[in-house]
Write a structure and sequence with these properties.
Two copies of one chain form a homodimer. Chain A is built from ten helices and twelve strands. In chain A, helix 5 links the parallel strand 6 and strand 7. Chain A folds into three domains: 66 residues, Winged helix-like DNA-binding domain superfamily/Winged helix DNA-binding domain (Arc Repressor Mutant, subunit A, Orthogonal Bundle); 130 residues, 2-Layer Sandwich (Nucleotidyltransferase, domain 5), CATH 3.30.420.40; 143 residues, ATPase, nucleotide binding domain (Nucleotidyltransferase, domain 5). By secondary structure, chain A is an alpha/beta fold. Chains A and B meet through helix 1 and helix 8 of A and helix 1 and helix 8 of B. The structure holds a DNA duplex.
Chain lengths: 382, 382
DNA sequence: CGGATTAAATTGCATTCCAGAACAAAAGAC
DNA sequence: GTCTTTTGTTCTGGAATGCAATTTAATCCG
């Protein structure tokens, strides 16, 4: 059809339009002009090519039926207008997917990790993405890029991705130089918790929220803070790494801590996923759950009093019933401390924590559609 | 001379230029072009009117003397190019100033509060600013606006300034409608702690820093968080109100708490400023200081692990020797907890906490010179 | 039924702002 | 004295938006 991908020609206000539709749902050109404080003519001009290229779709507005005036046509994002690939790597497995703009996974794959070397992992991940592309028959021009995430904290130079404990032998990884070659498209990276947070921002419980915090419970305790619809990373990308509030030498509400507590009772599990339903009935697990709930209540209170987010979303890879129990406990702990004279932030349950590679797949979307990541020189007119 | 004030015609890149000079010091047009990734021709075109209007001044660059090429001319901000007024109101007094762009107060005034009604206070504040304008003989066209700050927390509708405890009888205050009429120029508002933080950003210890947190110790415990050179307010502007981490029913590191502790020992002081040097030697004050230092250490640890700022700046209206002691104690508490594998944030002493009205005076500067507050329609070129 | 009214969407032209390229100016280097 | 280097300027063109008039399709109402 045409040579250039449908997202490559978006102007700054073009991104704002996509962003507004994503946040506030399908709406007319006139609504967009009012919301974004730009002229209707600008909206018409910018949306024209987007509709032609299949990025947006038009539909009549039923809610305005029976009212005077020219009937409005609602603009919606066509989920299949652009797709992205997501790669999640942990010490045990590689999980990949092709996802559309609605966050639906068109295809997923899970591959065991044979060898933890950087080369072996990236070779396998690249091959997996290529297989998924083949299987779904996606037009490569519609692929906006590939997101890659893996657990671990950052350290030192923020332009480079950190080496992490589980992958000690990896080289010093630089996204552009070391990651991109394996996937044949632009590559973005964040650690597992921050990528999972992006999935909640674009496809999950926090869709369109401007300011919220994320708590990620896996083997460790991770997290992220979203400020004005972008991740706030802080110094060395250490912001919202809540684990730092719980010293490793003491009991903490992490998956590894649960495994340690179980092991001390003689129940040795290798992975979190080995935790079966009947384990949950054990007194030792009940006890851990109660203590972890207290610690999470305290954590949410601290988050509420520091970031004052609109919401706190909690997700992770612990057993679903553990997650549910912890979230219920935090919700019950209102009013989140004394001295509160306004309503506390909403406590939300993550919706996309079952598919960690979806978070990675959200990274290219952020890069391409978010106004704040618009590249190049800047001008503003008034 | 000319009819419009020198700051009113700044384009978006014009603001970026001012901002870059403020952050990185005097520099040549070529430096600015490289730093901001815009063309030298653009810098020439934009700086021309600024120099002509007296907003910028030119000087030869001694550091490039003896080197090849056309000698560079350094551009500096002329502190007197634009001035602002600042008004700080507390239950006991009204403090006002006229300040220039360097944060020098050209004139200050302190007036006792006769009557805490909104009308009386604003009448007196407006008259005071008018007297200062008269005294300094400032050209009204050079006045960018007036900042107004007073202590208290926000609640409810963030478009309106909150009613606070000390001023319970005030009406529901709306900045545009209720504050502007008294001062004859544009008015901006933040509470005392957040305004003080703006003074540190523009004139003090954190000049030009992108991300930092502020701890404000007065009768209460306030604070602010700066993200990308703008205040991050959060839900209901409650972000970084650190006092929320210390329930009022228990000992907390606030000035009011110190007065309460002293009162319990039979030493009844009415105001913080009544605390004399010899009070500091009392065992009860020593004890309070020690406990408050522990609490501040904990607070800074929490800030470091949540916001991960580049720096934490501590200021307030406590006795200077108390402030110094507390800051020293926090600095000595490195490494700010275990599990830290990168350097902790710098602990800085506020430089402008002696003149609270200067924080208010920084608000119009932020509004006028910060790229992120640029009004009107938006476009970006690439 | 048909003109008046209403609001959305479109079109052509004007304006604003920046990039690009050629050029001018001032200094040291050879 | 000419060449080289770097800063700074000028002028033109292009990209993006605003502005104002116009078209379009629906309801309202006599």
């Amino acid at each position: 059809m045409d040579g250039s991908p449908p997202h490559s020609s978006l102007t700054y206000n073009g991104r704002r339009i996509i962003s507004a539709i994503r946040t506030h749902g399908p709406q007319s050109r006139a609504d967009l002009a009012r919301r974004l404080d730009i002229k209707p003519s600008t909206v018409t001009r910018l949306t024209g090519p987007m509709v032609a290229e299949g990025l947006l779709t038009e539909a009549p507005d039923p809610s305005r039926e029976g009212r005077k005036g020219y009937p409005a046509r609602l603009l919606s994002i066509d989920p299949r207008g652009v797709c992205t690939a997501g790669v999640y790597i942990d010490p045990d497995r590689i999980m990949t997917c092709i996802a559309d703009l609605a966050g639906d996974a068109l295809a997923v794959e899970e591959t065991p990790v044979p060898d933890r070397s950087f080369e072996a992992l990236m070779t396998e991940a690249g091959a997996s993405v290529a297989r998924l592309m083949e299987r779904t028959g996606i037009d490569p021009r519609r692929m906006a890029g590939c997101g890659v995430s893996y657990p671990g904290q950052y350290s030192g130079d923020p332009t480079r991705v950190a080496r992490i404990r589980q992958f000690r032998d990896w080289p010093e990884v630089n996204v552009e130089r070391d990651l991109s070659p394996w996937f044949g498209m632009p590559v973005r990276h964040m650690n597992d918790a921050k990528a999972a947070c992006m999935a909640e921002l674009y496809h999950g419980a926090c869709r369109g929220l401007s300011n919220f915090c994320h708590v990620w419970l896996s083997y460790g305790i991770g997290g992220a803070a979203i400020v004005d619809q972008q991740p706030y990373l802080g110094r060395n990308a250490l912001a919202a790494e809540w684990g730092g509030l719980f010293p490793k030498s003491r009991p903490r509400p992490s998956g590894q801590d649960l495994l340690d507590v179980l092991a001390a009772e003689g129940i040795v599990l290798d992975r979190l996923s080995d935790l079966r339903d009947d384990h949950l009935e054990l007194p030792v697990v009940r006890g851990w759950e109660e203590r972890a709930a207290d610690q999470l209540q305290w954590l949410c209170l601290v988050i509420a009093r520091t970031f004052a987010p609109e919401a706190i979303v909690i997700g992770g890879t612990l057993h679903p019933r553990l997650m549910d129990g912890l979230i219920q406990a935090v919700r019950a702990a209102e009013p989140l401390g004394e001295d509160y004279f306004v309503a506390p932030p909403a406590i939300l349950k993550a919706e996309q924590d079952g598919l960690p590679q979806l978070g990675a797949a959200a990274l290219p979307i952020h890069e391409i559609f978010n106004p704040s990541t618009y590249p190049g020189a800047v001008s503003k007119l008034r």
